[in-house]
């Protein structure tokens, strides 16, 4: 009956406060006996006499879900949600500046009851760079709350809505450019539980898919910038469950036991892709298609979840093992991250699944066809590398490729200070264009970028005494950006190799 063993209650303190508020007199008690009946609709002042009491919503981070609502009447629910812009791990060695509802992707799960009066407080952390707002698909009213919740950094907005439509809804930021805010992770789920509640289950989980567009390819290390072109072309580098590769894998897997029933609240934040949600090795006993409250289909293998939509699926666990959640557009699962695990412990059930019964040798007629092909490929690649190193034209080509990549790094991490022109700002940021300092010593330039640079220095006879913070780039990115700055704006030098950077890193580490 209970949800997860120990849900991460981010607002546990507030939950305690909520309990005490619940004990206080009903908010609308002065409305008289009429307030005790079933919902009667709002009175002249817009207050609904059926709404009794007041509480603070418990919000949870995925994959946890707040506990089911036991209340038999609507109440006033206060939701406090804070927007933050935070660098988080997207994959091993890969970081991304996510824009979040509650510091998490997806945003914190909100659970209210049908006809509750929701008093929404949206806070935008003072360190945010952008204004944000919220459009809850559960809201009946223009913009789903977006206009009333537009919030500058360091501000808080408040608006209220009545949750008249039960269902599982996406919420998302709707500040221009909307698709970019969504692509940076600004979405989550709000469940409006029907008056009569949802059927009890043993475990509930919260999973949201989203597509992400990074400047680098999947797995390319370092802090990745948002890539507008890829986003417009709908070519995501990542398709993720709960905001990170491995968010639901290994130790992070969801856990349950044989015999238990499970409900997954699954959302799709998009911004672009439709999900073919599937659990390998399970069949959904019930699907509440598109997040409506009617379980409208049984025995479903894969269910379609639109961008900006959701679904609820329920199934019972009969056989122990690891069940893999995927977007069945399978390259997304195995090459872009849309993969999660549900680990089920318990006794084997050989009547349902036998395990492997026979492993016999099978020799197909083509058994030899591919023998040795791996070796051939390796030999060809070695030949190619050798040819490239010998031919100055090809070697030049690789330098140009490095320049291209280096320019991308420069336009993401350096240009804000040294300016797109490489001219810097007089007295503050030294020029890189025709800089004698930069061109005199390649290793020193590399070291400055890796370790940061401070204290007095002189560029073309002008003194500077500022601070350049260390820049988090991998070896290849450093090699490329130094190649770029040493070969732009009138500078010329040889390309910097990854080995050059490694050497400097090793030296500075041993100092
Ligand atoms: Cu936003």
What's the shape?
Answer: flat
Task: Report low-confidence residues grouped into runs of 5 or more.
Answer: 1-45
What's the rounded overall pLDDT mean? Answer: 86
Helix content: 10-25%
Helix/sheet category: alpha+beta
| Number of extended strands | 25
Radius of gyration of CA atoms, rounded to a whole number: 28 Å
Bound molecules: copper (II) ion
Please state roughly what percent of the residues sit in beta strands, choosing from under 5%, 5-15%, 15-25%, 25-35%, 35-45% or over 45%.
Answer: 25-35%
The biggest beta sheet reads:
6 strands, mixed
Structure annotation, total helices: 10
* Amino-to-carboxy terminus distance: 59 Å
Task: Give a brief description.
By secondary structure, this protein is α+β, with helices and mostly antiparallel strands.
Would you give an account of this structure?
The structure is a single chain. It contains 10 helices and 25 strands. α5 crosses α6, α6 (392-418) crosses α9 (475-485) and α9 crosses α10. The chain is flat, with a radius of gyration of 28 Å. The chain has helices at 12-23, 178-183, 228-233, 330-335, 373-390, 392-418, 436-440, 442-451, 475-485, 498-510, and strands at 54-56, 76-91, 94-101, 110-113, 117-124, 135-136, 155-162, 167-172, 187-193, 203-212, 222-224, 238-241, 254-257, 261-270, 275-280, 284-288, 297-300, 302-305, 309-316, 321-327, 339-345, 453-454, 457-459, 462-464, 467-468. Mean pLDDT is 86; it is low at 1-45. 22% of the residues lie in helices and 28% in strands. The protein binds copper (II) ion. Residues 99, 130, 132, 173, 175, 181, 186 line the site of copper (II) ion (CU).
